[in-house]
Amino acid sequence: MAAQVDPKRQQELQMQYSNFKTTLHQLAQKIGDIETEAEEHKYLPAPARIPASAYSSTAHPRHTDTLTPSRLVIESLQPLPLDRKCFRMINGVLVERTVKDVIPSLKTNADGLKQVLDELMKQYKSKQDEMDSWKKKNHIQVVQQ
Predict the structure, then answer these.
(1) Which range (1-5, 31-35, 37-41) has the least confidence?
(2) In sequence order, what are the residues at sequence separation of 6 or more whose Cβ sits closer than 8 angstroms to the Cβ of residue 70?
(3) Where are the domains of the chain?
(4) Which sequence ranges are marked TM in the entry (predicted)?
(5) Residue 5 — φ and ψ, nearest 5°?
(6) Cα(74)–Cα(39) distance, rounded to whole angstroms?
């Protein structure tokens, strides 16, 4: 049988557990936001490293294996003539540019988003591992998640 834990210690453990879950949920939500933004630039396959249950039902739509038009901006512009007119939304303002001007900035943005996404994934995995070791150290068994 499990040893009885005093109420104060039990409350501390519950607070720590709640903090871990909140942090993981916030990271998962940020990852979902970045993935959604990355879809607008370039097709990025969905990493299957975070369980779908970590995302709130509205925070992150799960990806499919098919390409949607919103994920094809760079791929759509690449075959076009470099001097062709295109429009880009910058801070809510629609700006006229040429394909030659837009593609490099879109690639830079997509690369930056990928780096941020990779870093957030590392943070999520690290926090998940930290929580798992904390649960093991404190003999925590989750009854209801």
Answers:
(1) 1-5
(2) 39, 40
(3) 14-45+66-131
(4) none
(5) -105, 135
(6) 10
pLDDT of the residue at 63: 40
Selection from 31, 28, 82, 36 nearest residue 63 by Cα: 36
Tokens 């690449």 correspond to what residue? 78
Measured over the CA atoms of residue 85, residue 76, residue 59 and residue 54, the dihedral's sign is negative
pTM, to two decimals: 0.69
The architecture in CATH of the region 14-45+66-131 reads: Orthogonal Bundle (1.10)
Count the neighbouring beta carbons within 10 Å of the beta carbon of residue 119: 11
End-to-end CA distance of the chain: 22
DSSP result, the chain: -PPPPPHHHHHHHHHHHHHHHHHHHHHHHHHHHHHHHHHHHS--PPPTTS-GGGS-TTT-PPP-SS--GGG-HHHHHTTS-TT-EEEEEETTEEEEEEHHHHHHHHHHHHHHHHHHHHHHHHHHHHHHHHHHHHHHHTT---S--
Distance (Å, whole) CA 140 – CA 2: 11
Q: Are 131 and 24 in contact (CB under 8 A)?
A: yes
